[in-house]
């Protein structure tokens, strides 16, 4: 439940921030008449996302006839969810500073076209978050408890509601939140969740007889990690840590979690500034007195202002 709550909170806050940027732009530019078109686009995106989530669950539960088909379907959706999670957290870290300007620019272009374009722009801005949420939720719920039960669904809705409340308070300037730290911490937790989903996907591939080694266990800590305890349920539900994983499951978990976490937490290097002036000649470099001049003299421009 905590994993699905985290997914709802993270994805919901991203979508809420996108909507708040669009609404704030329309309000400040005195284009409130276009607000219904934005809400229409958001509503269509939410409806399609819910339908997509239902379609995934319906396909697994009804359309697939054998257990092997269901295991293979769950494995494929798990791998797809891991790809989306990884792309999402790195994209958000890179685009967080420029997303507001990009959204305002796209909305300005849509306003020049008409109401249909505004609705479509709002729809496209939110639908990505909605489809990601549906896919990741299904995979996380499957890996945690073998099915998207009511508890996981309520946890997801709770995370989304929390995100909407936080987004509304940020919009009203009633709450201050360091979004950079928030997305860093939630991104790190989601990497661990994604590692568990990836491990579960490998397990499903093994149960579908696509890859071998299902009964070759890496270790057995069932005497220490009793599956009936609350902390075992928390570890299993959050990070898919199980008492008797296969060797291939653990290799997959480590191979994903370690490099992705290192890359995510590594501070991006500052771009090297190109020199504004050509390199000094050897004869000029031998004049230390020029470098010792006051900053006002050294920075004086030979071109006088008009």
From TrEMBL:
Membrane topology: Multi-pass membrane protein
Domain of life: Bacteria
Primary residence: membrane
Keywords: Membrane, Transmembrane, Transmembrane helix
Pfam families cross-referenced by the UniProt entry: FTR1
InterPro entries in the cross-refs: FTR1/Fip1/EfeU (IPR004923)
UniProt GO molecular function: ferrous iron transmembrane transporter activity
Keyword hit for Transmembrane: yes
Segments passing through the bilayer: 38-56, 72-90, 110-127, 147-170, 182-202, 247-265
PANTHER family: IRON TRANSPORTER FTH1, PLASMA MEMBRANE IRON PERMEASE
Protein name as annotated: High-affinity iron transporter
Source organism: Micromonospora viridifaciens
Lineage of producing organism: Bacteria, Bacillati, Actinomycetota, Actinomycetes, Micromonosporales
